[in-house]
Backbone:
């Protein structure tokens, strides 16, 4: 079966950056399973997998515009420490939900001083060219329930 709209696809993969540093990977025996065409993976990878079959290996490079977008400097802000509860221990790497003009968003703490907390609303992989290498473990038709829910079960 060819990968196409409404296929449930299982892949083993390793994701690296331009320096070859492993950014993410599936665990042996625990492939990533997604519903093709339902925005379950980044567009560039989904496009590259379209038309492939079970057992096929892949090695693709995805530019930021087909992944998590460019890094937007305006999404990095210094927030007064007083905006957080005084007894809360804020650490780099923590994530918070914040309100934005476009609705709720997740921000990550990137720096902490006595007076300010720097938060970044960009996706951690925004602005990066991503390199995927892997193998397609399985391809099948989605069930009616999966199609109704918009994701693989």
Residues:
């Amino acid at each position: 079966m060819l990968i196409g709209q409404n296929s449930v696809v299982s892949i083993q993969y390793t994701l690296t950056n331009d320096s070859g540093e492993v950014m993410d990977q599936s665990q042996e025996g625990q492939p990533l399973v997604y519903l093709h065409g339902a925005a379950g993976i980044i567009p560039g990878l989904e496009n590259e997998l379209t038309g492939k079959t079970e057992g096929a290996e892949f090695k693709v490079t995805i530019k930021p515009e087909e992944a998590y977008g460019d890094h937007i400097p305006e999404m990095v802000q210094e927030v007064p420490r007083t905006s957080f509860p005084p007894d809360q221990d804020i650490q780099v790497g923590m994530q918070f939900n914040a309100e934005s003009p476009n609705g709720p968003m997740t921000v990550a703490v990137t720096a902490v001083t006595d007076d300010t907390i720097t938060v970044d609303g960009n996706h951690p992989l925004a602005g990066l060219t991503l390199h995927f290498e892997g193998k397609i473990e399985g391809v099948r038709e989605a069930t009616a329930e999966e199609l109704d829910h918009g994701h693989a079960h």
